[in-house]
Amino acid sequence: MTLKTRATCNSRLVAALILLGEVSSPAQQQPRRVLRHESERHEFFHYGGGVFLPVWEGGALLAVEANNSDEPVIFGIDRDGQMERIGLSVPGGRYILLLGLSGAKDGSIAAIGGAYSSDGRPVSFLARITPDRSRKTIVQLWPYVGLAVTFSPDGGMWTIGYVKPPDNLGISEYNVLKRFDPSGKLLATKSVEAKGIYDRSRDAATHSLMGSSRDRVGWLTNANEYIEFALDGHELGRFPPPPGPAPEVFETTVALRDDDEVLVGTRDGDGLKVWSLDRKERSWKSVELSGGKLAHGATLGFDGDTVVATDAVHISGATVSRYALSPAQ
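The chain above was modelled as a monomer; its predicted structure follows.
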């Protein structure tokens, strides 16, 4: 073997070893994470949501009482356990059914829902309640029906839902994403390609979930596919569901942190399994849990860097637990 040939072989060997190191080096992989239990307390209230679970958003636990009435009551419980109740009525609307809530950092609340007019016509709406509760803006949406809602970091509101045909029989358009500015003005509408939870189902929005970070909005479909959007509405990426069986209603939860951390909780027997999104590997990493198991009906949210888990299976209210998300030892 000549010196030139030997040098070429050595160069290739070094390159291969470097490549192998890049692929297998633990430093390139997301470290294992753990949720370390810090505190918990029980919040007493009469939960009457029915179609969605209480969740921590915007610095408070949000839920609803007296849903499917002429004036459902939105209530929020802050970090100090202080509760406020806000009645929400729709002009000319009866049997108001709230389908989703979202809380902003400034204390604003967004709600989506449906109702019936006095002559029996269906109504759908988006509502925004100001931080001082002095103004409630109602945006009529029919024939569009919003099924999930979130505040975007710029103060706008995003919804995902479907469009009803003129005869109100069936659905004419599925998975319709709408963006509104803080005043409730419609900015844009687009249809999102997504598969529903059931075979051949095009409806991925019913019982789906939304959230936002500092620079994006996330949508967890009812089949647990996770889709992210930039604030101008264009799609940033799609990620397959976490491992496990197909989800059922109230068995999945999602939380986004300002720095784009994403946690998803899925049912694991009678408990909740938590997963962290690894964007680089386009996969979900199991998150360990200290301090006992979360109930399968629990929801996840972020209060700053703290993970807040809300277990609302109790008739008398919910247990609110706080966890630190940190690397496993």
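The CA atoms of residues 267 and 296 lie 5 Å apart.
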